[in-house]
Amino acid sequence: MTSQNTDTAARAFAELDAYRALEAKQQPTWPDPAAVQVASDELAAQPPLVFAGEADQLRTRLAAAARGEAFLLQGGDCAETFAAATADKIRDRVKTLLQMAVVLTYGASMPVIKVGRMAGQFAKPRSSDSETRDGVTLPAFRGDLVNGYEFTPESRTADPSRLVQGYHVSASTLNLIRAFTQGGFADLRQVHAWNQGFVSNPANQRYESLAAEIDRAVRFMDACGVDHSELKQTEFYVSHEALLLDYERPLTRIDSRTGKLYDTSGHMLWIGERTRELDGAHVEFLSHVRNPIGVKLGPTASVDDALRLIDKLDPEREPGRLTFITRMGAGKIRDVLPGLLAGVRDAGATPLWVTDPMHGNGITSSTGYKTRRFDDVMDELRGFFEAHREVGTFPGGIHVELTGDDVTECLGGSENIDEQALATRYESVCDPRLNHMQSLELAFQVAEELKRL
Ligand SMILES: O=C[C@H](O)[C@H](O)COP(=O)(O)O
Ligand SMILES: C=C(OP(=O)(O)O)C(=O)O
Ligand SMILES: [Mn+2]
User: Fold this and answer.
1) ipTM for the assembly
2) What pTM was estimated for this model as a whole?
3) Which among 58, 247, 436, 441 would be 20 to 30 A from 207, CA to CA?
């Protein structure tokens, strides 16, 4: 580095570090600050997980979605865990997203941008700092990057060595995702092989007939001698909530090509509903990195909130830079979203609008499980499309908590999971996820909405 480059880098990091003077909500209480410094130094010495150029490429893809020329599919666990970062589970989540993408691409006849909530989704904001079970109170589980899910004082104590472990688990997850999506697994000729559902399930049968059509189309192209080598690989990006600043900061690096800062822990980072204060540390931090940024907006978000977030996070109004992920709740979306869309549009801003139909629809079952009704999720989705049709803006994508596994965490769907069934395979350590079949079913319904655009 020349001394001029060194100066520029020092200035960029000094600006980034303005966040340190601001309130950072939802951070763990680390018992030993010296150990956090050791972990931070270790992270700072590791290679980046993603390349800045990939984040730029995703920004251009998201810009197309903001213009109405592509659709974002973002999904994965509420909270990834280190233990579940196995080849089978990663493969099944990737498969589920690939299947959904095929359904959506076919339905919308437009490119679908695939972004996993994967390879870094390890830190959770919580409603309460503590959890009480049978009269015993311990710190809440804040994600594997912070503490363990097991309900013991040792496990629930925040442990900064988990930051480093989280980096390595993210690296191996991302490595496998790259292998799957670029090494032949995601070849469109494998469209049948991705299916893993129950033969008799209606979503499964619908998928099989769509896959057969795609097969015929690919064979037709083969017979015509069309070169369609781009069908052999697929672009796949990773994202997570940039919650834990002790993890994000040491992974933020200067891009040698441009001299700009990128948070290299993932391609896209988002700010959660609980940490999106304009004068808070998270908004300040992400305002200084070049990655595409998402912000969750709940039902209390005003037009003014949205416009100020745009001014802070996307002052140049750069296409693809900013995605608003709305999570209003099925009962509220039709009342609150149209005004928000219109207010932002009238101010001349064109962020990408995406729906998260999960987080506004949480309930507790009579049997004590955190759950969501599939019908509420679908209702919010329809409300999202209705609001955009009403205002004339583009419904640019979906953000869902899902897994490739056959879990029983959300009520309903074609398998009719009821309150009693929740207990059979409830595996989430945080929010309930759509299982493989529910995810596919949702994709078909979104495809129907996209066909109406
Ligand atoms: O994923 C989102 C939040 O972390 C989660 O909904 C919070 O859940 P809690 O209300 O159980 O803390
Ligand atoms: C914490 C999450 O969501 P929100 O910020 O919308 O509550 C999440 O996406 O898991
Ligand atoms: Mn969640």
Assistant:
1) 0.99
2) 0.98
3) 58
